[in-house]
Write a structure and sequence with these properties.
This protein is of the alpha/beta class. It has 28 helices and 14 strands. A hairpin with a 4-residue loop joins strand 1 (23-24) and strand 2. The protein is globular, with a radius of gyration of 26 Å.
Length: 711
């Protein structure tokens, strides 16, 4: 890490107020996040036997930036030096020395930029010269020391962030307004900065997150697409039951995700110490930067709660009207209780953030990762004797002949057995491999900026963090609900078809069974506030969360936590699942995250939110986002933002978990597809992040248009 940060090119963009870059604009150069080779061939081979490599550093963690802001690099190094004196093993001593060296790299990196600022100041005009000298002075002080001013605090967080990005660890920033708010308040009180200058600095900081926005055509040219797809296809063919979900990895998805660097910030919420509202001036400034600039990065979330000031809710509505699904909305009233039930202290639960996507973690104290499984695949196993309907592979045991299932309760019993099988397999695999990342991909810089590793003299990857959590994320849940609802209604209550006919129809992808598909599609569905379907959904989610809790006792090293979501892979996830009893055809996309299936939200966004809020939201501590779209005509006019803010208040009061709202209309999307050069800033939500619509593949664009057409 120190070697990389001492050698990476230094570059100042013209007229910028925040130094430090990962991209050289004029040279069209993007700095690689590769590290100098550090693993021997023997080490790499030993790690490969466990499916690990030097890229297994993971990301999806949030550093303890308040620790860096309060102590600076030298303060943390003093902690490490003190701990080194009491180390009992060589591994502990090695960790402390590595963390100390990695922090030296961070400080050296900032000082290299300070030197560059002074050199450029010698050639600059008066106004720019003063800016460059001020930047140099600030970087010479912080992050080496704890920052004293708002500007130094901004630089400290930014240099910490890009140090991780440049060394292969794509991390989120966390509660940016809480990190910076006290510094701005002090500077304003002391007359060191004006509100206007502070807003400009926030604008510049957030724009920095967007410097490496690659055109997808460039990204496409940077890879051997045929070779990469062959690798993905081989991975799919050799999959096991406990591999990640049913996602059939596709070059399309890799290119679509070109500009997703896991750079999240979260705003608002409550204060950890007393639970009071945490909104401050930086909260508003960050949202104002998004309203002005139409960015996709950093992916931004606002935490809402019952006492969130109305002015903040109203302003969130204004920003949402600009489109792009930003900010996302998290509900403290559901998430904090879920974290408390999962063993987090009250103060830590109140301080939650999201990682590089939407998954909830406690920042600076958590080693977090996740695994995904598709509930639709579990249902497919129950209805196909453990085999995949896509390629016939035997993925799980034969749970019995589905044609002989004689009642809905028996079907549910089959389904629950498959869920147990999948959960147990995933949890066994994770627990057995726990701690092995340390053999090939330790993270001494990140570990130095967490609570626990220095105290334990143990790297995060070896179990040093205060909390060790693992999200178990269920995919395809809305389709599983709709499928069970359809079977219960059509097969067992109305007796309009038999289980034999259903299984035959699924085997045939409904060819010749269009009559049955229509019947199944007409059954009650999740997302329209239908008590019939929602009751089934509550039962499914209740079983899932209870099973995770029940099994957790057998895995002392890790705290497994349930969630529902798909991220942006809903097309590829669907490609790995055959026809399903809700009438969905084989390989069709699944709905994003915990959203209703396409066409199921017949009662609009209000019906969808009402269904979502019933689904055990306080038992899903890692999260369960619902992604909704509103046609722009419904929120146009002078009171459009107020309509949105009213909807957000209702979401909080009803107990929803996470919500994204994209304001768009079908014709705009179609025009952007035909004339992309006219819509360079049109953004859409991609399950856990936002993307420029014109940079997406046509398949992904068509999918967004199809979902929008249903409104």
């Amino acid at each position: 890490i120190k070697q990389k940060l001492n050698m990476v090119p230094v570059h100042l963009w013209e007229d910028q107020l925040v130094p430090g870059s990962v991209a050289f604009y004029k040279e069209e150069l993007f700095i690689s996040s590769d590290l100098p080779r550090y693993a021997t061939d023997l080490e790499a081979a030993a790690a490969a036997r466990h499916g690990l490599n030097v890229w297994s550093i993971v990301g999806h963690i949030v550093p303890h930036y308040p620790k860096l802001l309060s102590l600076g690099v030298m303060g943390i190094q003093r902690q490490i030096a003190e701990r080194l004196q009491t180390c009992e093993t060589q591994d502990q001593r090695d960790f402390c020395r590595a963390a100390h060296i990695a922090l030296e790299g961070l400080a050296d990196f900032a000082l290299r930029y300070a030197k560059a600022c002074r050199q450029e100041a010698e050639l600059a005009t008066d106004e720019r010269r003063l800016e460059l000298i001020r930047m140099a002075e600030d970087l010479e002080y912080a992050p080496l020391n704890a920052p004293r001013t708002f500007r130094q605090a901004v630089y400290t967080i930014w240099f910490g962030h890009i140090a991780f990005q440049l060394t292969g660890n794509y991390l989120a920033v966390g509660r940016l307004d809480q990190h910076l708010g006290p510094f701005l308040e002090n500077d304003l009180a002391e007359g060191r900065i004006t509100v206007e200058d502070a807003q400009e600095l926030i604008d510049c900081l957030l724009l920095k997150f967007n410097e490496r926005a690659l055109d997808n055509r460039v990204a496409s040219q940077l890879m051997d697409k045929e070779k990469v797809q062959q690798q993905y296809d081989k991975q799919w063919a050799n999959r096991s039951a406990f591999d990640h979900s049913t996602q059939k990895y596709n070059v399309r998805d890799s290119i679509d995700a070109t500009n997703h660097w896991l750079q999240n910030i979260i705003l608002g919420g409550v204060k950890p110490a007393n639970g009071e509202d945490a909104t401050n001036l930086v909260t508003i400034m960050c949202l104002e930067a998004f309203r002005r600039n139409g960015m996709t990065n950093p992916c931004t979330t606002v935490r809402l709660h019952k006492d969130t000031p109305q002015y903040l809710v109203d302003f969130v509505g204004e920003v949402l009207l600009t489109g792009g699904g930003l900010p996302a909305l998290f509900n403290d009233e559901a998430i904090i209780p879920a974290l408390l039930k999962s063993g987090f202290s009250e103060e830590d639960a109140r301080d939650y953030t999201n990682d590089g996507c939407w998954e909830v973690i406690v920042p600076g104290r958590t080693d977090f990762y996740f695994d995904r499984f598709n509930m639709l695949r579990c249902l497919e196993w129950a209805l196909n004797r453990g085999r995949s309907r896509i390629d016939g592979k035997q993925e799980a045991p034969d749970f019995g002949d589905p044609r002989k299932i004689s009642s809905y309760e028996e079907l549910v019993s089959y389904f629950e057995k498959t869920i147990d099988y999948e959960l147990r397999g995933i949890m066994d695999k994770i627990h057995d491999n726990f701690g092995r990342r340390a053999m090939i991909a330790p993270t001494p810089l990140l570990s130095a900026l967490l609570e626990g590793p220095i105290e334990n003299a143990t790297d995060m990857t070896a179990g040093g963090a205060k909390y060790i959590t693992y999200g178990l994320i269920a995919e395809g849940v809305s389709h599983a609900i709709d499928s069970l609802s359809a079977v219960k209604k059509v097969i067992f209550e109305e007796r309009r078809a038999t289980m034999e006919e259903l299984v035959d129809a699924l085997d045939a992808n409904f060819e010749g069974y269009e009559w049955l598909r229509r019947l199944l599609q007409s059954a009650p569905k999740y997302g329209s506030n239908d008590p019939y379907a929602d009751g089934i959904g509550k039962a499914i989610l209740g079983y899932f969360t209870e099973a995770v809790d029940r099994f957790n006792a057998d895995y002392p090293k890790v705290n497994f936590l349930p969630a529902v979501g798909t991220f942006s892979w809903y097309i590829a996830i669907g490609e790995g699942v055959g026809a399903t009893p809700d009438g969905r055809l084989a390989a069709q996309p699944v709905s994003s995250n915990f959203s209703p299936s396409v066409g199921a939200d017949t009662k609009g966004v209000t019906g969808a939110i009402l269904s979502h809020s019933k689904m055990h939201m306080k038992d899903l501590p890692v999260g369960s986002p619902i992604d909704l779209r509103i046609n722009s005509r419904y929120v146009s006019g002078p009171d459009g933002a107020q309509r949105l803010s009213g909807l957000l208040r209702s979401f909080v009061e009803l107990g929803g978990n996470m919500l994204t709202l994209t304001v768009a209309d079908t014709e705009t999307l179609r025009r952007a597809q035909r004339e992309p050069e006219k819509y360079p800033t049109l953004r859409v939500r991609m399950g856990g992040w936002s993307a420029y619509f014109t940079m997406l593949s046509k398949e992904q664009q068509d999918h967004h248009i199809q979902k929008q057409e249903r409104l």
